[in-house]
Amino acid sequence: MQTQPKEMMMTNYRFDEDFDGFLEDFGEPHDSTPIPESVIETYRGKLPEQLFVYWRAVGACGFHNGLVWMTNPAEYQDLLDMWLDGSPFENRNDLSVIARNAFGCLYVWGKSKGKAIIIDPNLNIIFYDPLNDSTPLDDAREAIKLQRFWGHSDIEYFDETDESESPMFTRALKALGQLKSDEMYGYKHRPALGGKEVVSNLDIVKLEVYHHIAQQMEPPQVITLN
Asked: 110, exposed or middle or buried, with CB in 10 Å at 0-12, 13-18, 19+?
């Protein structure tokens, strides 16, 4: 029986090498909701085409028991606008939320750039990555950066740590249960108001409500990453 050449076998991916590797590490998607073609058309030219391949296959969904979620950016646009209002990024229309983690952090993609911003509602910080946001990419290079966002991110990247620098997600999952698609782990007593960054201070909260409260309680701080 004739066998495939090695170079052909190596390219026989389900999606691409990076996203296949992501699925190996994070497991199959759960709590999936289809992303309408109308949303894909809205974001065509604003997000990489490769992301639409993922959307059509898995939808907006969670991975690894809710540690990280692939998002429908249309559902997060109001939250993004709220956080960026009054910031140096408020007039930009090229930013979209493509993912979020169990602790409500929003991962924001810049058109033809890459992951430019992370918004952390627990700390009220907008983390800005000027290196990713500096040089425009052509479609091919932007697609590669998008693939690597998923494939090169490990479980530790999406987790958060407590005051002793110990990962919290597994313990929060055990103590509080698995999140639904509109939920996150948020602090009952906010760190800025004296609350401790420990699992016992976490609770399951509605993501949108928590973000609104967090943004209204204290002005977000913009931190530029080196």
From this structure: buried
Alpha helices in 13-158 (DSSP H): 17-26, 37-43, 49-58, 77-84, 139-151, 155-158
Q: What is the pLDDT of residue 219?
A: 85
Amino acid 9: pLDDT:
43
Confidence of residue 1 (pLDDT cuts 50, 70, 90): very low
How far apart, in whole angstroms, are the C-alpha atoms of residue 94 and residue 109? 8
Question: Which pairing describes strands 221-224 and 125-128: parallel, antiparallel, or unpaired?
Answer: parallel
Structure tokens at 181: 């698609």
- Mean local confidence (pLDDT), 203-217: 95
Cα–Cα distance measured from residue 66 to residue 63, given in angstroms and rounded to the nearest whole number: 5
Structure letter (DSSP) for residue 58: H
CA–CA gap between residue 85 and residue 90 (Å, rounded): 5
Residue 143 in contact with residue 49, Cβ under 8 Å? yes
Report d(CA 191, CA 28) in Å as an integer: 34
